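> example.struct
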């Protein structure tokens, strides 16, 4: 049996804490004695601190000076996500489409999954496709060409990605529990911005079953339906459910795509659970927040 592969995988809101340094400066004010008033002597409270007097030697002792705080120096190239002298402070977001290492660094890590009950499952996969393009994705034969985009190995291929990074997550306690695949992809020009509207347009005509020949003895019957409840994160969001019927068997996968700037986040999980249900809502929201903080809009 063929498993649907709409992303690069086989099967609470998180914030980024930014540390800062506040430099405090002391200002001195001259004291005006006014007409006929007694002048302040060294050691008294005045606008300008005076020297104290050594009781034994009888000579003035200059006041102690506090060291000036050191400003943090940020090193490293913009967008590397490292090199700051303050832990947890990212470098400037990349100015163009993110690279595969930058996308990988923006994926949710194990330490950020505590509230979700998930764990990282298996090694990451990532690739910079701009200098080393993937071969044209093999799209199964579809009897309605307008629906072929949903039968691709990776839906984001429709946006001609410059780079992508993928990580899989699984239930930390139950082997047969929730599973989720997350892919971040970067796009040049308006290719990423055109991807989600194109999917929305195609969805309406693909709600009726269409035949997909995926290499089996008989074609599979696919249908696509929009899904409500996806977290409203990023610049635009779309979600849909794919139902595949083969003989007497039926399988379902839910897909959520969120675009922010030149980056698209794709979430795919088996079953028909709503995107706003646990643990999916927390992962979607947290992933978009982290990626936007590191990669920019």
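> example.seq
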């Amino acid at each position: 049996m063929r498993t649907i592969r709409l992303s690069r995988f086989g099967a609470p809101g998180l914030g980024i804490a930014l540390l800062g340094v506040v430099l405090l400066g002391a200002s001195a004010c001259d004291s005006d004695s006014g007409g006929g008033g007694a002048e302040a002597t060294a050691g008294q409270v005045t606008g300008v601190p005076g020297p104290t007097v050594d009781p034994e030697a009888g000579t003035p002792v200059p006041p102690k000076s506090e060291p000036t705080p050191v400003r943090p120096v940020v090193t490293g190239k913009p967008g590397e996500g490292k090199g700051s002298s303050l832990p947890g402070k990212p470098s400037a977001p990349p100015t163009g489409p993110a690279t595969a290492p930058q996308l990988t660094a923006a994926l949710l890590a194990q330490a950020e999954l505590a509230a979700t009950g998930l764990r990282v499952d298996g090694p990451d996969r990532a690739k910079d496709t701009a200098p080393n393009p993937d071969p044209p994705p093999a799209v199964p034969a579809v009897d309605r060409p307008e629906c072929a985009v949903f039968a691709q190995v990776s839906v984001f291929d429709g946006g001609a990605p410059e780079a992508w990074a993928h990580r899989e997550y699984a239930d930390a306690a139950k082997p047969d529990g929730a599973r989720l695949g997350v892919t971040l992809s970067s796009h040049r020009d308006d290719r990423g911005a055109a991807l989600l509207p194109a999917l929305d347009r195609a969805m309406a005509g693909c709600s009726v079953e269409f035949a997909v020949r995926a290499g089996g003895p008989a074609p599979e019957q696919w249908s696509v339906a929009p899904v409500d409840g996806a977290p409203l994160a990023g610049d635009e969001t779309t979600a849909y459910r794919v139902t595949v019927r083969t003989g007497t068997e039926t399988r379902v996968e839910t897909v959520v795509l969120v675009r922010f700037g030149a980056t698209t986040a794709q979430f795919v999980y088996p079953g028909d659970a709503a995107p706003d249900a646990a643990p999916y809502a927390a992962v979607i929201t947290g992933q978009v927040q982290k990626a936007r903080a590191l990669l920019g809009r």
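> remarks
DSSP finds three helices and twelve strands in the chain.
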